[in-house]
Amino acid sequence: MNWADLPPLRESLESHGLIARKSFGQHFLLDLNVTRKIARLAGPLDSQTVIEVGPGPGGLTRALLEAGARVIAIEKDERFMPLLAELADAAPGRLTLVRADALAANEAALLAEHAGGDLATVVSNLPYNVGTPLLVKWLTGDWRPQSLTLMFQKEVAQRLVAPAGADAYGRLSVITQATSAARLVMDLPARAFTPPPKVDSAVVRLDPLPAPPPAALIAALERVTAAAFGQRRKMLRSSLKTVGGDSLCIAAGLDSNQRAETVPVAGFLRLAEELLNAS
Question: What is the CATH topology of the domain spanning 215-278?
Answer without folding.
Answer: Helicase, Ruva Protein; domain 3 (1.10.8)
